[in-house]
Amino acid sequence: WRVKMNNVILTKASVVRNIKDQKFTCKLSADKRAIVSNLAEETLSTLGYSKVEDLNPETKQDLLNSGLILGNTNNTFINKNKVAISLFEGEHFTVKTACVGYEESELKNITEHVKALDNKITFAYSDKFGYLTSDISLIGCGLKLESYIDLSSICALGKINQVVQNIRHLGYNLQQYDKEIYVLSSTCNLGYTETEIFENFSKMLGEVQNLETESAQLLASTSKDEIMDKSFRSLAILGSAYLMNCDELKAHLGTIRLARNLNFVDVDLEKINKLSMLSLNGKEYVSQSELIDLATKVRTIIKGE
User: Residue 41: its pLDDT value, please?
Assistant: First the structure.
């Protein structure tokens, strides 16, 4: 039995590494940074990685939409499996992958790509502590997991601050990303294997999802008909609107996720997450043409075209 992650929009996995006998990025001189860059470029090309800045605009936009890369594509490499490696993003190397929703098997593939890199470069390592980093929370295997999750129902009940505090006491971080969207992240590697970190994170994410579902049920106990009506209206608007802005899209998706947790609507979760990704990448839709463009993308996803 598995928890249905109805509210999880996007999950990222990243692993950091620092080259042995080189200072951490914050203390790295320009000439030493050039040495790291040259070594990285030479090594990554042999492992099948390409520079993101050399890709065509459409491919870059796809990577941005996937949440795998940020706006700055300098010093970022990508392979055919959509595993990215960024240089000097905190540590010397940050290996990243992402999936819409939460697919643990997809995320775990990152470990194989990290092993391939470990076989090519000697990284800073301690027999006592594991891989060494400038961020104490990453010392060990260097793995960090982050899930973006819509917590509209918990927020509607005014319970979000209590949930944030409780999760912190359990060794995780829950931080607001945008309105009702929060990011759950792992905060400690020391003493844990990659497998244990994945297992523990999955359980924690499931607990957060259960809290959101229970909150939806509490809301429905007093306003079932209103929620059902709003969800049907939201679906109709998303499928027919000619103009759409990000705030409106987020509000409709929050309503639909709430209704889905209550089994009021049967909307494909993949479609909902694809719609959420349109507003998650930080792009602002302001001009008339952009509002039309967003509405067109929304209609296309809803209709499965």
Answer: 94
Locate tokens 């949930």: which residue?
A: 163
- DSSP for 118-164, please give it: HTTSPBPEETTTEE--SSGGGTBT-EEEEEEEE-HHHHHTT-HHHHH
Count the neighbouring beta carbons within 10 Å of the beta carbon of residue 252: 22
Mean pLDDT by 10 residues, the chain (305 residues): 83 96 95 96 95 84 71 82 92 94 93 97 96 95 96 96 96 94 94 95 97 96 95 96 94 94 92 89 80 95 86
Q: What angle do CA 80, 86, 89 make, to 5 degrees?
A: 160
| Amino acid in position 123 | F
All residues at 6 or more sequence positions from 45 whose CB lies less than 8 Å from its CB, including other chains: none
How many Cβ atoms are within 10 Å of 224's Cβ, its own excluded? 13
Q: Which two tokens stand for residue 22?
A: 């080189």
**Token pair listed for 181:** 């969207």
Q: Are the beta carbons of 150 and 181 closer than 8 angstroms?
A: yes
Beta pairing class for 130-131 and 143-150: unpaired
Sign of the CA dihedral running 255, 105, 280, 246: negative
Rounded Cα gap, residues 24 and 189, in angstroms: 18
How many helices and strands, by DSSP H and E, does the chain display?
10, 10
Strands (E), 47-135: 50-51, 76-78, 84-89, 91-100, 125-126, 130-131
d(CA 18, CA 126): 12
> For residue 89, what are its two tokens?
């993003």
Sign of CA dihedral 283, 288, 294, 297: negative
**CA 55, CA 151: separation in Å to the nearest integer?**
36
What are 17's two structure tokens?
Answer: 């590494």
**Look-up: residue for tokens 């792009």?**
283
